[in-house]
C-alpha cells in the first residue's frame, strides 16, 4: 500500500541558497571489483554503465564526508553555521546507530545548541526527503537549514556479490535552504513523498537492528551487508514511477515539455537512461554521475545537481525536476526553479 505526502506549499518561498558535494579521492575501478565478484570489467559496463566509483578512507565515516560537503554549501550560500536553525542528514549508513549523523555534523560545524539536528532514514530518497521536511519547517518558522545526503555503502558490501559491489560508491552532497525570491536563491516549487512498505525486503541490510542484533551467526552469514533484488526494484520503478510523476506534475500544473533538467537518483547509469526515457522527459537534459561515481545512495541527487551547476548547465529560470527512490520503498519528487 502506498502512502504519500502532498505538494501544496504555503508560507513564504524557500529555496536553495548554496550547494556542495564531496567524493573521496580513492577511485575504485571495475578491474578492482570484477575479480572477487566473479565478473568481467566488460560485464559491469554492459550491465550497469558504471566505470568507476569512490571509496571513503579508512579514517572517514559518513559524518566526515557530510561535513566537507556542508562546508562547501555554506560557503556558497554566504552564510555561517551560526545562521542555521536546522540540520538534516539523509543516510542509512550512519557512523553508529546512536547518535545522529546530523548531530555530529552540527558539532563539527560549531552550530549553536539552538540548532535542531536529526537524521532521516529513507535510503536513496533521503536527501529529497530531508529537503521536503526542511522546506516545510522553514515556511513555518523562517530561518535557514542545512540538508545533506551522505552514505558510505562500501562498508556494507559483500565483495563476492555482483548484484551490489559493482554498483555502490561513497559520497555526500549538501544544500543550504533559506528565503528565496526576487533573484535570491533557487525556489523550491513543490515536493512530494510516497512510500510502499510492502516492498521493504527488496533492498535491506538484514542484521544489526532490533529484529536481528549482531551475533557471530549474523556476521558469518554476511547479514550486515546490503542484500538487494535489483531486477525486482527495476520492475517496481517502471511500474509505478511514471504514474507517480504524471500525478505530481499534474497537481502542480506543469507540463513535461517545460522541464529543462532532470536529476534522477543514480541507481546505475543504464537504469537512469532507461527510466528517463520511460518517464517521457524528452525535452529535459538528463544529468548523470553514475558512470564515474556509481550509486552514492542518498548523496546521488545533490552530487549530480552540484555537478550540473559546476558545468554551467543550469540557467536562471530553468525548471529542474529531481526524482529519487530507495529501499523501503520510498519515492520523492521535487520541482525547483533555478
UniProtKB/TrEMBL annotation:
GO biological processes: fatty acid biosynthetic process; secondary metabolite biosynthetic process
Domain Beta-ketoacyl-[acyl-carrier-protein] synthase III C-terminal positions: 249-338
Pfam families: ACP_syn_III, ACP_syn_III_C
Record GO terms (molecular function): 3-oxoacyl-[acyl-carrier-protein] synthase activity; beta-ketoacyl-acyl-carrier-protein synthase III activity
Documented EC number(s): 2.3.1.180
Domain Beta-ketoacyl-[acyl-carrier-protein] synthase III N-terminal: 118-197
InterPro entries membership: ACP_syn_III_C, ACP_syn_III_N, Thiolase-like
Cited PANTHER family: 3-OXOACYL-[ACYL-CARRIER-PROTEIN] SYNTHASE 3 (PTHR34069), BETA-KETOACYL-[ACYL-CARRIER-PROTEIN] SYNTHASE III (PTHR34069:SF2)
Name of the protein in question: Beta-ketoacyl-ACP synthase 3
Organism: Streptomyces typhae
Amino acid at each position: 500500500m502506498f502512502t504519500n505526502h502532498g505538494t501544496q506549499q504555503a508560507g513564504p518561498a524557500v529555496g536553495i541558497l548554496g550547494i556542495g558535494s564531496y567524493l573521496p579521492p580513492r577511485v575504485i575501478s571495475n578491474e578492482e571489483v570484477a575479480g572477487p565478484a566473479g565478473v568481467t570489467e566488460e560485464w559491469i559496463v554492459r550491465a550497469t554503465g558504471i566505470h568507476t566509483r569512490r571509496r571513503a578512507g579508512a579514517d572517514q565515516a559518513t559524518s566526515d564526508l557530510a561535513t566537507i560537503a556542508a562546508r562547501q554549501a555554506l560557503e556558497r550560500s554566504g552564510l555561517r553555521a551560526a545562521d542555521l536553525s536546522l540540520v538534516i542528514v539523509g543516510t542509512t549508513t550512519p557512523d553508529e546507530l546512536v547518535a545522529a549523523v546530523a548531530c555530529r555534523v552540527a558539532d563539527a560545524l560549531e552550530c549553536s545548541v539552538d540548532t535542531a539536528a536529526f537524521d532521516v532514514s529513507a535510503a536513496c530518497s533521503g536527501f529529497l526527503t530531508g529537503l521536503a521536511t526542511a522546506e516545510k519547517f522553514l515556511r513555518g518558522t523562517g530561518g535557514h537549514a542545512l540538508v545533506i545526503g551522505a552514505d558510505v555503502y562500501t562498508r556494507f558490501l559483500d565483495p563476492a556479490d555482483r548484484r551490489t559491489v559493482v554498483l555502490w560508491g561513497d559520497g555526500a552532497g549538501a544544500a543550504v535552504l533559506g528565503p528565496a525570491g526576487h533573484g535570491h536563491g533557487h525556489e523550491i516549487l513543490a515536493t512530494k513523498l510516497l512510500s510502499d512498505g510492502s516492498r521493504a525486503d527488496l533492498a535491506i541490510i538484514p542484521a544489526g537492528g532490533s529484529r536481528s542484533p549482531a551475533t557471530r551467526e549474523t556476521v558469518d552469514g554476511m547479514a550486515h551487508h546490503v542484500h538487494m533484488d535489483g531486477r525486482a526494484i527495476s520492475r517496481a520503478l517502471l511500474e509505478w514511477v511514471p504514474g507517480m510523476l504524471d500525478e505530481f506534475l499534474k497537481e502542480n500544473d506543469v507540463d513535461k515539455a517545460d522541464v529543462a533538467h532532470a536529476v534522477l537518483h543514480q541507481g546505475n547509469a543504464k537504469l537512469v537512461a532507461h527510466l528517463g526515457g520511460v518517464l517521457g522527459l524528452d525535452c529535459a537534459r538528463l544529468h548523470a554521475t553514475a558512470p564515474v561515481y556509481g550509486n552514492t545512495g542518498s548523496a546521488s541527487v545533490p552530487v549530480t545537481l552540484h555537478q550540473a551547476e559546476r558545468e554551467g548547465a543550469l540557467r536562471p529560470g530553468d525548471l529542474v525536476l529531481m526524482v529519487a527512490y530507495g529501499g523501503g520503498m520510498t519515492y520523492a519528487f521535487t520541482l525547483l526553479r533555478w
